[in-house]
Specification:
7-stranded mixed sheet; 6-stranded mixed sheet; Immunoglobulin-like; 26% strand; 2 domains; alpha+beta
């Protein structure tokens, strides 16, 4: 596109901006308004920076966090499907406040028969139910779950006063816990383990009718300390089911007693490997520590199938120590195959690990551990080097759930071992996602109970980056596709959600219990927003540096949304208040269109519009110095005239010769065509205007007008386009970068057949 560079030319349209009607003038005098500009700073939405959290989005000089250390002994009763436990919690008060009581989370209580969570939702009659759903809803007795607390005692064995409110337990301290002090107390408890396949939940057991065995994936199995900080005080919002967990960091020593023929792995480093491993397992484990290209079987399928036939009455105790983690989980079964391989992350070796029953093969043996390894490498490149010594993927039907160093993942072949691409890619995707949660929120430890998007959305975004890199770099893993079929991340994939009735939408900045569709709201939309921010708004270099800065700043700390928003701006020098407000604080959507296209010709005489302007201002025409006027063709915007009524080139050449030397003229770019493109914005979100202009000779040019183009008019924007070539087609957002929900207004001429617009429309369907 040629830029007009003629000093003498003054366009009459500059006067039109002064043509404010008398009615508007009167209204502006009578009625003021608050600042509703979409580019205003977010001082009202953001918390005030302070000594705990700076305006730059970093931990401040007074930042603190509490510590909770655990010593836990549990026994898994396989025969009766129960867990028995004793634990001692040592709680360190690093806050400047004195604490009169402590809050402990009892998340299993959501499964009590009288839990309010069971009746909190409306549930009209459905026209159809699957058999298990019908049975659970109308026939079965409610599951008898929840913690049975036998005692809470201080270090001297004296009973402490406590009260249980649903999923929270308040422990009243006999003495105030002063700033800088520690307190220890002990609890004894047990609960019934639920069938997670038929009774849902984030952990539990699966029964296998073919051999009478069960596999256990166990989490939220012990009373856990709630978070106390300067943001919320005690985060004791009840666990209703959707909002996940807010947990302090600490050190864990955990001993788990299970049947002797069980294979078990867990958060933390195994302390008694020689006691619980056979000699063959030890040899294979040592080999796996040096195998970087493929997994090594620690327990083979033949060995697991043999173990399935016996039900040992003996017991083994597995002893783990985990430092600086926010939670603990484990998996145990005699059915488990076990494989491992080493992966180089930074300057250290990390073990990628998988546990799965034979029902997961051949899919799991082929892919799981390799995907774990690739995930650790890719996430580390975008954030920080993975700090723990292992990452475990456990096969579990219908579940995708995460904990420090261990996660539970779905993806099961048919009985004959066959599987579809959908099952394969679904399994790979969930493993990437759940292993990725080691970074968000297990290390960058946001409050999941309040802000689900901070881990789910951010993690889904990095999952998308990992999947796409997997498609580019590891085609042997996902054959035959070069581009991984990601479910979330592409702007076009969030269009349907952003198009639904506003009564069914909530802003991203909502508590997860209060949104209508948690998947699109907390996973898909924020992941897409961050992808757009990286690809279209900031650019990869600026975004990646800012994102890594945020990740490193808040490793092993508790960030808030404002810490993320502020860091992304602080580390990039990109003002993003308009983006956070629109995408995260509202349910506005993107819809930018081409309202009108006008063509102008150069004229030595004023047109009717110019005459009217001069008359309104009382300026005699003969008092004006000579001007060059751009006159509107005033023809149908869809059918612009082929030729100018006057020869632009001839007229311009005359003016040039009269006002410039030949040397000056030789450096000027003289256009043949003058266009005014008027863009409107039916949607509420401001976004850059990305336009592809196609010329008569078949050439194309893409221009991205910055988002600030909307700062003075939130409804429509006009852009003047000059060129030596005739424009024949215009397409907005040709690569579907902005999640525009309506592309019917994205092209000019609007009625195109057999054109690029047809190809453009097909992208949405694709």
């Amino acid at each position: 596109m040629k830029a007009i560079n003629i000093k003498l030319i003054m366009i009459s349209m500059i006067f039109s901006s002064m043509g404010i009607s008398q009615e508007v003038k009167e209204n502006s005098r009578q009625n003021g308004h608050l600042n509703i500009n979409k580019f205003r700073q977010m001082y009202q939405e953001f918390s005030s920076p302070n000594m705990f959290r700076t305006a730059a989005g970093a931990p401040g000089p007074a930042y603190y966090q509490q510590q909770a250390d655990y010593n836990i002994n549990i026994e898994l009763d396989d025969q009766n499907k129960k867990i028995y436990g004793r634990e001692t919690i040592t709680y360190t008060n690093n806050s400047p406040d004195n604490l009169e009581y402590l809050w402990v989370q009892l998340d299993q209580n959501i499964r009590k028969k009288d839990s309010p969570s069971l009746i909190r939702d409306g549930d009209g009659v459905s026209p159809a139910y699957d058999p298990s759903g019908f049975t659970n809803k109308f026939i079965n007795e409610p599951f008898d779950g929840g913690f049975n607390i036998e005692y809470v005692k201080d270090v001297n064995g004296k009973a402490l006063t406590f009260i249980i409110n649903q999923t929270m337990m308040r422990i009243d301290l006999p003495e105030v816990l002063k700033s800088g002090e520690k307190v220890s107390f002990s609890l004894k408890w047990w609960y019934n383990i639920q069938d997670h396949v038929n009774q849902d939940g984030r952990s539990g057991y699966e029964s296998f009718k073919s051999d009478g065995n069960r596999s256990y994936i166990i989490a939220q199995f012990f009373p856990r300390m709630a978070v106390y900080n300067e943001v919320d005080g005690w985060q004791n919002y009840q666990f209703w089911g959707s909002g996940e967990f807010a947990l302090p960091f600490g050190n864990y020593e955990v001993k788990i007693t299970v049947p002797a023929d069980h294979i078990l792995d867990a958060t933390g480093e195994l302390q008694n490997r020689k006691e619980v491993f056979s000699k063959d397992m030890l040899k294979r484990f040592n080999k796996a520590k040096k195998s970087y290209d493929k997994p090594v079987m620690i327990v083979t399928q033949a060995e697991a199938e043999q173990a399935e036939k016996n039900f040992s009455k003996d017991k083994n105790t597995w002893h783990f120590i985990a430092e600086n983690v926010r939670d603990f989980a484990f998996a145990s079964s005699r059915k488990f195959l076990w494989d491992m391989m080493a992966v180089k992350v930074g300057n250290k070796d990390v073990m990628a690990v998988s546990l799965y029953p034979k029902e997961g093969n051949p899919l799991w043996e082929d892919y799981s551990t390799i995907v774990v390894a690739e995930t650790l490498k890719t996430y580390s490149s975008f954030t920080f080097d993975y700090p723990y010594h292992k990452a475990i993927s456990v096969h579990a039907k219908q579940i995708g759930m995460e904990y420090p160093m261990i996660c539970f993942n779905f993806g099961r072949p048919n009985i004959d071992g066959s599987y579809s691409d959908q099952v394969k890619y679904g399994m790979i995707g969930v493993i990437i996602h759940e292993v990725g949660h080691n970074f968000f929120p297990m290390i960058v430890n946001n409050d999941e109970r309040q802000w689900a998007w901070m881990d789910e959305g951010i993690n889904t975004f990095v999952q998308y980056l990992t999947e796409q890199q997997l498609g580019e770099d590891k085609p042997e893993i996902i054959f035959p596709l070069k581009k991984y079929p990601s479910r979330r991340g592409e702007p076009k994939d969030i269009v349907n959600y952003m198009s639904v009735d506003q009564n069914s939408l909530a802003p991203i900045m909502s508590n997860p219990e209060n949104v209508f569709s948690l998947g699109p709201n907390a996973y898909g939309k924020p992941a897409t927003a961050l992808n757009i921010l990286r690809e279209t708004i900031m650019g990869k270099e600026l975004f990646d540096h800012a994102f890594k800065t945020y990740s490193k700043r808040w490793m092993f700390k508790h960030p808030t949304p404002e810490d993320f928003f502020r860091t992304m701006e602080d580390a990039s020098a990109v003002d993003l208040d308009w983006f956070w407000r629109g995408w995260f604080y509202t349910t506005d959507f993107v819809d930018i269109g081409i309202k009108e296209v006008k063509q102008y010709y150069v004229s030595p005489n004023p047109g009717e519009e110019m005459k009217k302007i001069m008359e309104e201002r009382g300026i005699p025409m003969n008092k004006l110095r000579p001007l060059v006027y751009l006159e509107d063709f005033e023809n149908d915007t869809e059918n612009l005239k082929e030729a100018n009524p006057l020869d632009n080139s001839k007229l311009l050449n005359n003016y040039l010769k009269e006002n410039f030397s030949e040397e000056e003229i030789s450096s000027l770019k003289v256009p043949k065509y003058f266009y005014e493109i008027i863009f409107d914005k039916p949607g509420g979100l401001v976004m850059p205007i990305i336009v592809e202009y196609e010329y008569e000779d078949g050439s194309k040019e893409k221009i991205k007008y910055p988002v600030q183009v909307w700062r003075k008019n939130d409804n429509e924007v006009s852009k003047m386009v000059t060129s030596n070539k005739k424009i024949v087609n215009i397409i907005l957002d040709p690569d579907l970068e902005t999640a525009d929900i309506d592309i019917s207004n994205n092209a000019w001429p609007k009625k195109q057949e057999d054109s690029d617009f047809d190809k453009f429309k097909s992208k949405i369907k694709g």
